[in-house]
Write a structure and sequence with these properties.
546 residues, alpha/beta, Cobalt-precorrin-4 Transmethylase, domain 1, Methyltransferase, Cobalt-precorrin-4 Transmethylase, Domain 2, Rossmann fold, 4 domains, ten-stranded mixed sheet, five-stranded parallel sheet, 20 strands, globular
């Protein structure tokens, strides 16, 4: 691989900028504020692997729409590129003075192996910056519930090549605590090296597989048993802890794998392209979240009507504007951006939001709603709280209602009875999304998901329409009574209803349900198993005897 010549622009601003960003050990919540800021300014994000790109779903990230996101394993099939060869890829990405973020696991220099690559960039005349990340060798012991404490000597080792063990680091015998990052196929060599250095084969060790992710498994075993450790599902790296820290290990400190939704496979049917904090909250409770778009949002068939209404808004023709959803906020905001307008155009205009999520979108735009619908999150609850038109107090009786292409006659009639003249305008259309992949449809029908969370009645109808009904063993959670009624109308048993119509409240309610379920199983003397696991076990038990 030959490095391309750097662009000869004659201006330092065209040399580009390279920022190494440590992504942490796998939990997107561990991205630092500096990492988020760098990613939000990136022209190109070049990750070590495709797995790291999944971290970019973190809601705090707002990558530019034109940013190029790719990974080294997508650019080349060679898994063992040298530092100079990786630097060549970075050099190519710098063309035109771009800002390139090199996203690497853990900490760039401690875990990410970026040292040789950065040195090659320096030799090519390219400057770089480093944003440190949370290191796997220090974070993953805590994720496993192991307290390293204030020991006299802790040795952190990245033993990921055969050469390391061939060298035979004989210091291992006298070190108080060893924390070793290695590959699964090197576990036998690790054990042999440690025993040769004077450690006992029956010494207790803690092994962390898939650390920092919802696939994490923490295993307490013996040094001599490492060669026989089963690492399924397959993992690329293993963390092994040996020494005094293991002697103090207590399963009671295993906080991460004790999360209420840990390992639960949760299906989230949602509006396409709608970013919601619900997914982040579910992951914070330990869930493995899989999203299935059920609704696609499209432009209205006659966008001129929305443009006309927005001109009337700016000219002061309305007293109120009522937003029924996040999508309505987004549709109006996009038209404002096209016209070069901003939130200041709402000055003197009263704003109502039907749901808490809609209010969040407005606040993100810099608009504080004057009226928020009731806890049910329905148009009926908003209408119940809406003020009457008072001729001596309100100079204008017109109200602007940007909405989806769905019927709102009852809401409009209620506002009309209050004396308001409602101008309805279709701001966006919702259409049913394409069916998910066949394997996802089968997983839904066969009960391979532990839970499904519905954030609206339309997600219920559309999921059933494009993928079929979830298996009876799957826990069903609904964002409110109206959504729960729709679930029941489609033959689904509702287990959880959120106390408030927000995604975060729904995620918390599901976590509370899972915690109570776990306590009930323990009290009954039954093994703690996820809903999908209990379905499979029951099927085996109910198999007729030949």
């Amino acid at each position: 691989m030959t490095a391309p010549e750097p662009p000869d622009t004659g201006a330092s601003s065209q040399r580009g900028r390279v920022v190494y960003v440590g992504a942490g050990p796998g939990d997107p919540e561990l991205l630092t504020l500096a990492a988020v800021s760098a990613l939000n300014e990136a022209d190109v994000v070049l990750a070590d692997s495709a797995d790291l790109i999944d971290l970019l779903q973190q809601p705090a990230l707002r990558l530019p729409g034109e940013a190029l996101v790719t990974s080294i394993d997508q650019l080349t099939a060679d898994a063992r590129l040298t530092g100079a060869e990786r630097a060549d890829l970075v050099h190519q990405a710098l063309e035109g003075g771009r800002t390139v973020v090199r996203l690497v696991p853990g900490d760039p220099f401690l875990d990410g192996g970026a040292t040789a690559e950065a040195a090659a960039l320096v030799q090519a005349g390219v400057d770089f910056e480093v944003i440190p990340g949370v290191s796997a060798v220090t974070a993953l012991p805590e994720y496993a519930g192991v307290s390293l404490g204030r020991r006299s000597e802790i040795h952190l080792i990245g033993a990921t090549t055969d050469e390391f063990f061939e060298a035979g680091d004989r210091r291992w015998g006298g070190i108080t605590t060893l924390v070793i990052r290695t590959r699964p196929h090197l576990l036998a060599q690790l054990a042999d090296t440690a025993v040769a250095a004077g450690r006992q084969a029956d010494e207790a060790v803690v092994v962390s597989l898939g650390g920092g992710t919802t696939e994490q498994r923490t295993i307490l075993t013996k040094l001599g048993e490492l060669a026989h450790l089963v690492t399924t599902p397959p993992v690329q790296e293993v963390l092994v802890i040996i020494g005094h820290a293991v002697a103090d290990y207590s399963a009671e400190l295993d906080w991460f794998e004790s999360k209420p939704l840990f390992g639960w496979r949760v299906l989230v049917p949602r509006t396409k392209d709608l970013v919601s904090p619900m997914m982040t909250r579910l992951r914070s409770h330990g869930a493995r979240v899989e999203e299935v778009p059920t609704i696609a949002v499209e432009q209205p068939r006659n966008p001129g009507q929305l443009d006309k209404a927005i001109r009337g808004l700016v000219e002061g023709r309305f007293e109120w504007i009522v937003f029924t959803s996040r999508n309505a906020v987004r549709a109006v905001r996009e038209r404002f951006d096209d016209y070069g307008l901003d939130a200041r155009s709402f000055s003197g205009l009263k704003v109502a939001a039907a749901t808490a999520g809609t209010a969040e979108s407005l606040k993100a735009w810099g608009i504080e709603p004057d009226l928020l619908g009731g806890p049910e999150g329905t148009l009926a609850s908003l209408a119940a709280d809406f003020p009457e038109f008072e001729p001596g107090f309100n100079p204008i009786n017109r109200l602007f209602l940007p909405k989806a292409d769905v019927a709102t006659e009852a809401f409009t009639a209620a506002l009309t009875d209050l004396g308001w003249e409602v101008e309805e305008t279709v701001a966006y259309r919702t259409v049913r999304a394409a069916p998910p992949p066949a394997e996802t449809r089968e997983a839904i029908k066969q009960g391979q998901f532990d839970a499904v969370v519905f954030s609206s009645s339309s997600t219920v109808r559309n999921l059933v329409g494009i993928a079929g009904k979830p298996h009876p063993v799957t826990v069903v959670a609904a964002i409110g009574p109206a959504t729960a009624n729709t679930c029941e109308a489609h033959g689904l048993r509702v287990d959880v209803v959120a106390p408030a119509p927000t995604g975060v409240a729904l995620a918390d309610a599901l976590a509370e349900f899972a915690a109570r379920r776990r306590e009930s199983l323990i009290a009954a003397g039954e093994p703690v198993a996820r809903p999908s696991q209990r379905r499979r076990r029951r099927r085996v038990q109910e198999r007729p005897w030949p």
